[in-house]
Amino acid sequence: MTTNDYPSLWGFGTTKTFKIPVEHLDFKYIEKCSDVKHLEKILCVLRSGEEGYYPELTEFCENRLKGLAPESRALRKDKPAATAASFTTEEWEKIDGDIKSWVSEIKKDENKMHFHETEASPAMQDHLPPVRGSNSRVHVSKEKYSNSRQPKKKIPRDYAEWDKFDVEKECSKIDEDYKEKTIVNNKSHLSKIETRIDTAGLTEKEKTFLATHEKEKGNEAFNSGDYEEAVMYYTRSISVLPTVAAYNNRAQAELKLQNWNSAFRDCEKVLELEPGNLKALLRRATTYKHQNKLQEAIEDLNKVLNVEPDNELAKKTLSEVERDLKNSEPASRAQTKGKRMVIQEIENSEDECGKDSGRAQEDGSGDKKAAEPAGPGSAAEPRAMGNIQKKLTGKSEGGKRPEKGAPRRGRAPGAGADKRGRLRAPAAAGSGRGAGDSAAAAAPAGPVPAATLGPADLKSQGNELFKSGQFAEAALKYSAAVAQLEPAGSGNAEDLSILYSNRAACYLKDGNCSGCIQDCNRALELHPFSVKPLLRRAMAYETLEQYQKAYVDYKTVLQIDCRIQLANDSINRITRILMNLDGPSWREKLSPIPAVPTAAHVRAWQPVAKTPHNQGGDSCSRPQPSIADEKMFKTLKEEGNQCVKDKNYKDALNKYSECLKINNKECAIYTNRALCYLKLCQFEEAKQDCDRALQIDDGNVKACYRRALAHKGLKDYQKSLNDLNKVLLLDSSIIEAKMELEEVTRFLNIKDNTTSFNKEKERRKIEIQEVSEGQEEEPGRTSEELSTDCPVSENGDTTNGPPEFYEKLPITKPNNAYEFGQVINAITMRNDKEACAYLLTITEPKDLPVLLSNKLEGDTFLFLIQSLKNNLIGKDPSLVYQHLLYLSKAERFKMMLTLISKGQKEQIEQLFDDLSDTPNKHFTLEDVQALKRNYEL
Amino acid sequence: MSAFEKPQIIAHIQKGLNYTVFDCKWVPCSAKFVTMGNFARGTGVIQLYEIQHGDLKLLREIEKAKPIKCGTFGATSLQQRYLATGDFAGNLHIWNLEAPEIPVYSVKGHKEIINTIDGVGLGIGEGAPEIVTGSRDGTVKVWDPRQKDDPVANMEPVQGENKRDCWTVAFGNAYNQEERVVCAGYDNGDIKLFDLRNMSLRWETNIKNGVCSLEFDRKDISMNKLVATSLEGKFHVFDMRTQHPTKGFASVSEKAHKSTVWQVRHLPQNRELFLTAGGAGSLHLWKYEYPVQRSKKDSEGVEMGVAGSVSLLQNVTLSTQPISSLDWSPDKRGLCICSSFDQMVRVLIITKLHKI
């Protein structure tokens, strides 16, 4: 017997409305029940209250239902509308403010519209289609099948007639299958949408409205997946009013339709209107990716990631692009091994393409010959560095790979640039050279007819081999080139140096460190202070564990260009190693670091376009400007540098500012401009530039140093001090910085004094003018000093005599310890013994201990002694004695005595001797002796 | 979607009126709206309000002989902004609100009350400015303000067939100068779609209960969706992109309100969102979601549409009386007015619509 069979036995029964067994209205049952429909019914019964009022059970049931089916209709409840109280204050202010600002805005717009009202209407009328059915002209074309309808048009018609018309239409289009028609219907409307909107006679407001409206339609179409329609509406929106958003959205829709070219154009348009638009960059990267322009894609993506490092989409795309690059790499490598000649051939043709399209291929082989010294070396660089240090990071990998991507892209430009195109190209070239090549393809890389090739060709072959990892063969090529060039003598020093440097890279790769060092030495002999051979030699030394030599080389490199990250890192590493090996005095064991001539410095500033490649891992993260911009940038910068040399700072300033418009990521420009500002005494601007430079490169010594100067110019000595300390921390060998440091410290003290002095004087209202005069001179002097600090300065002698610039200190009788302290400080600072003597004459000796209070220090003491000895002893020996007597009673006297050095003691002794020699009635010899004992002499 | 992410419906401003209000409409490009209705003394009234400092200011009150049932700014340019109204006597008038004494256009269009009116062209939608009216006399007529006295199209039942009360009309498909459709809903649940280009009845269906309100998601695109609300608290969303020769348009229906769904209005800035106004003074905000594939082939290889789904984003109850009309501001996303039979007009703000 079950409850189901005889529910009444238990006395429960069922509910009235849904006939649910009453025992289902139970916590346990509801907890277990997973039938949503049933639960809804239970909830309904519970809510109706027909079985009693159980608020907790109802709530429990609601929660259970919510867990199972959150969207259930039974859960919908009537709620009152929200009011201001439903929101937090800020939220409500936002909502309310939004509406209020809209209201006031729309009122303004409305008033404007009224103004136009009368004039525009007629134009609108002209563009309207005629009245339906009333203008026979339009109906002429339709009459073929609507003849019968024409006279009836104004007469009321019934549904049957409507249907009949349908039939007629069917008859007239008898060849058209109805089914087909409905299918076509889906897309057919697209062709009928006008892509342009006639905006004649529309006010600006209306145009904006229309453009936004069309764009919204586009957005909706896009969201529902009708990309073609979306493109159509975006186009319409653009036809009314071109906006960044519309172009950007159209680009996205085109991407969905895989119209890469159109999407690319739209992205370009956006970037033209709004440079640096992230979405557009991202979308352009996608078009690049699909057009197999992987290098450009990476550039764009890096730009995006620079601004938004967390952009997931950009990261994803970047990794995809990099994967694509890697995937395509083995294929090209295999080719290089197999048919070198063929590849060479293609490379030539690629040169033309590269030039024709005028693309930014500065690192690709397309420009190799033109770019000469930087090209091959820089291509080799990251690889070499990575290998040696076993620090091949993902980034440097990325930086290196694009270099390979670039030539590949060049090979089949315009032809969709897909793999197939690439593979076909060598084949075509091969057949052009004759049948012999098919054999060559299979054969191992045989020596090329080297004799017939010039050194330049040999070098480019070597570069190609190097890039494909054939280091030994590359070295052979370079050797051949060297052999050809060497007899030519010094005329080819530059080229030879590069060849040696390149060969050094090959040796380094092969682990032939001594060979590498030899080559580097040769390269450096031919062309001293070039970065690459130095770097390579440093790495070779490091590998050979000759750390001192490596350190020296790295240090030299940094002198030439302090931005080379690799060198900075290596320096740090080697410093640690050397400290472990040699202890704290490791520096003493170093051979002297050669001083780099300034010419090399300046040169190091110039190669902006090249340096990124020197920096290995950095190169890929740095957005690269287009080639035109880059050229512009370079010339501007060089002009700027020239202007600086010519001391034409204003022009230089303008040039650098232009540079920054093209590329605002270049540290050197900021530091250079800062220099100009410094020269022009525009310290605030100089400081800002240095700040920016330091934002880009935290460890930039120049920027730091110049900021110190700027701070000094702004009289912010404390900050100046900090910066100088930082400079010295970065590089303790900078003498200028040390000098500055001393000077600034002195200023800092003087300033403290003068300000307090000033205060004091103000209180007494005496001789304020004099003091302020002293202050006024400061800016002038600092700027003069500045010019001496700068490398290209002309007058260097003004620094030496700060005291000369001060008027005689106004000294009055100090009333308390504080005033005395101020005066004595000022006097010590100026080293003005006369003033001190004067001070001592006007001061009562017996007041001295009070005035000195506990501030007696070695310097002050000595100064007092000196002025007593030099200036007072002859005039008034008794005063000297009195002073000495009372000085010995000052607070910290004993302590101070223990601290003074021998030489200083001798000075005191001399004073006493002088004192003893001067006869006087105010004190006896014994008194002096006793006092002398007090002075522990 | 968490509670805070949900759009909230805020009753921003409420104002009691001294007449029965039937319809309210925003004046385009302004913070003004008009309310239309009838005074207890049996005359018609149009009031023009403006939002000022968080309150409503009555700018103008126009009294007319006959109670005014409905109005639209649909067939006028932004520069003119003439209001077209239909009244209890079956007159269609077009008013210049700046000079409302004499109508710009006037026609005795129907024998009985004009229940519903819609306009297209000039402002939104391509092609000629046209106004469609639906009346208790069972006819649906299309008017061009440039043509006096006679409609440019007239749709009425065959003689002898009983005339159904037309409760709602809507323009759609006006994506170029030629294409245009009118959809009409009747008290018996009939929905008829008239193609004005071909002058044909393109499609009809019956949703069993009286059709209170019809609206295309947009008038000025190739027909995309149509929402029809009914007397018994249900509404239907038709996907109008794919028409099957026999099955017509695919649809999804949802029971939303406990009583009549009086109005449906799509957000002008996002066609997938719409608001329905219920008989018990409730407002529901819905979102339509498309299916993965909007069309599929039936067994005979003929394309047929696939309906998506609707989800409720928010619902509130504003009053105990039915909400008779509803209008989104065409200029400000989330701003909305509604009138209800408790003689109230409310300005609503609906938040977070841009996030959906």
Protein traits:
A: 937 residues; mainly alpha; 0% strand; disordered N terminus; B: 356 residues; four-stranded antiparallel β-sheet
Notes on the structure:
- The complex is a heterodimer of chains A (937) and B (356).
- Chain A has 937 residues and is mostly helical.
- The N and C termini of chain A lie far apart (124 Å).
- Mean pLDDT of chain A is 68; it is low at 1-11, 118-123, 134-156, 164-168, 170-185, 332-451, 602-625 and 756-807.
- With 356 residues, chain B is mostly beta strands.
- Chain B is 0% helix and 55% strand.
- Chain B has strands spanning 9-16, 20-26, 32-38, 44-52, 55-64, 68-72, 83-87, 91-95, 105-108, 114-120, 130-135, 140-143, 153-155, 166-172, 181-186, 190-195, 200-206, 211-216, 225-230, 234-244, 248-255, 261-267, 270-278, 282-289, 295-297, 303-305, 309-317, 323-328, 335-340, 344-350.
- Chain B has a 4-stranded antiparallel sheet, with no helix packed on it. In chain B, strands 2-3-4-5 form a 4-stranded antiparallel sheet, with no helix packed on it.
- The interface between A and B is large, with 77 and 88 residues.
